[in-house]
Design a protein that fits this description.
This protein is 63% helix and 4% strand. It has helices at residues 8-13, 69-86, 91-94, 99-132, 138-156, 159-165, 170-179, 181-184, 187-194, 203-228, 241-247, 253-292, 299-305, 309-321, 324-337, 362-376, 378-389, 426-445, 450-453, 457-460, 462-478, 482-516, 523-538, 557-560, 566-584, 586-598, 605-609, 619-638, and strands at 39-42, 51-54, 232-234, 237-239, 343-344, 393-394, 406-408, 417-419, 542-543. The strands form four sheets. A three-stranded mixed β-sheet has the order 6-8-7, covered by helices on one side. A two-stranded antiparallel ribbon has the order 1-2. A hairpin with an 8-residue loop joins strand 7 (406-408) and strand 8. Helix 2 (69-86) packs parallel to helix 5.
């Protein structure tokens, strides 16, 4: 998912912004035109050892390698669009008293702006997608860095446009939109641009921030490359980060412990560099926040998400109040189920028995996801099927590939690409459903055009988490006896990881950024803050053994997108409310839900949820979703 940024003009034109990989939580938390043949791997922790063919994507729909002349053509087209846009400099302000003229200039200007965005984002997406599967390849890293710098130079020429738009008053904008239907189309985008009115700087300062962005992004690149090359020593094996995280849901307690301790040692060895990346990015954010007059570190993210701080604070308070009834209670029940008084942190996502977990072949996962999506609507499922019929998914884990998962929308005239590391477990099936939910959402919103389809994070998780929920409901409906209890445990743990854990991450970020305001924060201090917050959220039944203090270091959202994480809890509890509405009226729900997704970023979350009778500004809204999680824990306990 594309991430937001502090200013809409940068969000719209920073073509090489880091891909918003949804970083995995430990234990599985979540160049040519030829089709690249899927490679065959073996899943070794099952008696039958099924062969599973996993696809790798082909990006030939974008470009045919670094030397493809279409790259230069798109960069030149973006530059030409910005040159034409620059001809409007000053004219918006001159025309402010003439609604007809101002409306025509607005329609023409935003059209040129979007043309430049489409060209730059295509190049940026290609560079980012290729680099995410080739982290060890210096040539691709250089290409990504070079494209970022060239993109930034092109973008600099259009910075004046949104600055001038924000010098117009509301009455002038409204009169222009009424006078010109073509301009009126851009009303939602203009609303988002104008959110930054109080935080914009002079043209020269905006250009300075823009010109410095490519250099600052190298700290993110250093962080990503460090993690992608992280050698996790586990006995005689050397694992990558995704494999080490996945092993912490292994049925064998000794293998879980060895993987956890190996990962702790690897993170400790790299903590100074990873802490330097985190400190530097936070310091640069403080500078920009100070110049832009943001009072709190999370305020820029709230603005990009079009959500007020009070709503996020209400969400946080509701979740924290439920810690004892959710995470504390569940982990105590799980410890009892495993014959323990407490759980070591590497046992938090352990299976309930030591039998090998059920593994799903790629074809089984595909069938599960598509049949579940069919239950919502045929059209929703058909749009997901296209990703299996075309080489648009990269699922095979391999050396040099980033961890995590995402769906990248590229641009509205293009199609999304789905990225994950599939290892055959139930969580991987749900991750596939999650990312395909994103992809379908992006396809449905694409007719709006790139600027209007770009969805704030508060709504961007809606289809992904809903897709997960559909697949889980299908699995649970078919499960019996002990299998049902195992599935409930998985669902509860996924919910805790998505809601409780992400709110804990949000609280950690707030503490870290507050500490960074006083000076650089040493790795051991970061670790202490991490232990404080995670201990609070997990409760007394989970033992945070030595080594866990380093686990902050691999949560990539802290570096990629500060204060992103609450969007997961926001989205999860929002989906819980939507699932309840679907139960009330399955037939009537589907068209309203599809309309929500098709609206992309053209509506605020309050507007989008109004047809369902839901108001997320009320604390009771969040508490309803949390009570649904409590009921799952009730059922889990009753089956013990």
């Amino acid at each position: 998912m594309r991430k937001g940024c502090p200013s809409p003009e940068r969000r719209a034109t920073d073509a090489l912004e880091q891909i918003g990989a949804e970083s995995a939580n430990e234990g599985g938390e979540t160049a040519s035109r030829r089709y690249i043949r899927p490679m065959t791997i073996h899943l070794s922790n099952t008696a039958s050892t099924p062969q599973i063919e996993l696809p790798e994507w082909s990006l030939a729909d974008l470009y045919d390698g670094r030397e493809d002349p279409r790259i230069e053509q798109d960069l030149e087209a973006a530059r030409a669009a910005n040159v034409s846009l620059a001809e409007l400099k000053g004219k918006l302000l001159v025309a402010r008293a003439d609604p007809q003229r101002l409306g025509a200039l607005l329609a023409h200007g935003v059209g040129l702006y979007e043309e430049a965005v489409n060209r730059l984002w295509s190049v940026g997406a290609y560079a980012g997608l290729m680099t995410s599967v080739r982290r060890e390849d210096a040539a691709w890293a250089k290409f990504e860095g070079d494209m970022r710098a060239r993109s930034s130079a092109i973008v600099a020429e259009s910075l004046f446009f949104t600055l001038e738009l924000n010098q117009l008053n509301e009455a002038e904008i409204e009169a222009a939109l009424r006078a010109d239907p073509a301009a009126a189309r851009w009303r939602p985008w203009l609303r988002r641009v104008r959110l930054m009115r109080d935080h914009e700087l002079s043209g020269d300062l905006e250009r300075l921030f823009n010109d410095r962005a490519p250099a600052l992004s190298n700290w993110v690149r250093l962080y990503d490359e460090t993690l992608s090359r992280l050698p996790v020593k586990v006995g005689r094996e050397t694992l990558g980060l995704p494999e080490a995280l996945n092993r912490m849901s292994d049925p064998d307690p000794a293998r879980r412990k060895a993987a956890a301790q190996g990962l702790a040692r690897a993170l400790e060895d790299n903590a100074p560099n990873l802490a330097l990346c985190l400190n530097t990015i936070a310091f640069e954010k403080q500078i920009e926040d100070r110049w832009r007059r943001f009072a709190e570190p999370a305020d820029a993210r709230h603005l990009a998400n079009e959500v007020d701080a009070e709503a996020v604070n209400a969400l946080e308070e509701a979740v924290v109040e439920h810690y004892p009834r959710l995470s504390h209670r569940y982990y105590a029940l799980k410890a009892k189920a495993l014959g323990r008084k407490t759980l070591d942190y590497w046992d938090r996502n352990a299976p309930l028995d030591e039998a090998p977990p059920r593994l799903y072949s790629w074809e089984e996962a595909k069938a599960l996801v598509l049949s579940s999506f069919d239950q919502l609507s045929r059209d929703f499922a058909d749009k997901a099927r296209a990703f299996f019929h075309n080489p648009w998914i990269d699922a095979r884990p391999r050396q040099g590939k980033s961890s995590g998962a995402y769906s990248h929308p590229v641009t509205a005239p293009r199609h999304p690409y789905v990225f994950l590391n599939y290892m055959g477990e139930r969580r991987d099936v749900l991750t596939l459903a999650h990312e395909l939910g994103h992809a379908v959402h992006q396809v449905l919103a694409a007719p709006l055009g790139t600027l209007l389809a770009d969805t704030p994070l508060t709504l961007a998780e809606t289809a992904s988490i809903f897709g997960e929920g559909l697949v889980f409901d299908r699995l649970l409906a078919e499960a019996k006896g002990a299998e049902r209890r195992v599935l409930l445990a998985g669902k509860i743990e996924d919910g805790l990881n998505t809601v409780v854990r992400q709110i804990a991450f949000h609280r950690f970020e707030r503490l870290f950024h507050a500490a960074r305001a006083e000076g650089e924060v040493a790795p051991d201090r970061i670790g202490a803050l991490w232990l404080q917050v995670m201990g609070e959220s997990l409760g007394p039944a989970v033992k945070l053994n030595s080594g866990y203090e380093h686990y902050w270091a691999y949560v990539s959202h802290f570096v990629h997108t500060p204060f992103y994480v609450y969007a997961y809890a926001f989205g999860d509890l929002l989906v819980e409310a939507l699932m309840e509405k679907r139960l009330e009226d399955p037939q009537g729900f589907a068209p309203k839900y599809e309309a929500l997704l098709k609206a992309g970023g053209s509506q605020t979350y309050v507007e989008a949820l109004k047809p369902f009778g839901l108001n997320p500004r009320e604390k009771t809204f969040w508490e309803g979703g949390l009570r649904r999680m409590e009921r799952l824990i009730d059922e889990f306990e009753s089956l013990g």
